[in-house]
Amino acid sequence: MKNILNPSHAREVLDRIDRLSPSSKPKWGEMDVAKMLAHCSAFQDIAMGNASPKRSWSGILIGGVAKPMFYNDKPLARNMSTISAIKIVDERNFEVEKGKLKQQIIVFQKKGAQECMGRPHPFFGKLTSEQWGKGIYKHLDHHLKQFGV
After folding, report:
1. Whole-prediction pTM value?
2. Name one Pfam family in it (predicted).
């Protein structure tokens, strides 16, 4: 399983983000490309400790059991639900969101394991840095595939 904390895996994701354009269209889902980038940045904010949404009741009840789906090799399902705190509904500027996400990935990758050690996910609960690294890569990969890159 790839991990965003690995420099070569982070570089691969950054290169894929660079292949997006304002006219990139989703293969599934309702978000446009700028909203998708903002959504991924909002998720990155949670991992980096810049946002701390409350844990959902469903997360408290089943999050621990479902946790491995966040960082295993199985791709995320298309059109699955997301954390309400990172649903992006307002219009966003593609270039701004692209730059913000790329910078977050660079900072997160450079700070490494200390950046997310034990930080809770709002559904799955506390994660190790390795679980966060794999989960972030998996989430980004899911959305980049959604836009064909």
Report:
1. 0.93
2. DUF1569
CA end-to-end span of the chain = 18
Q: What whole-number distance in Å separates Cα of residue 55 and Cα of residue 120? A: 8
Residues 84-118, buried b or exposed e (16+ Cβ, 10 A)? eebebeeebebeebbebbbebbeebbeeeeebbee
Q: 28-73 pLDDT, tens per residue? A: 999 999 999 999 999 999 988 888 888 888 888 998 899 999 999 9
- 42 φ, ψ to 5°? -65, -40
Q: Compute the Cα dihedral for 11, 46, 131, 87 and give only its sign.
A: negative
Please state the domain extents for the chain.
Answer: 7-146
Any idea what DSSP says for residue 124?
Answer: T
d(CA 74, CA 33): 24
Going by the DSSP 8-state scheme, the letter that residue 53 receives in this structure is P
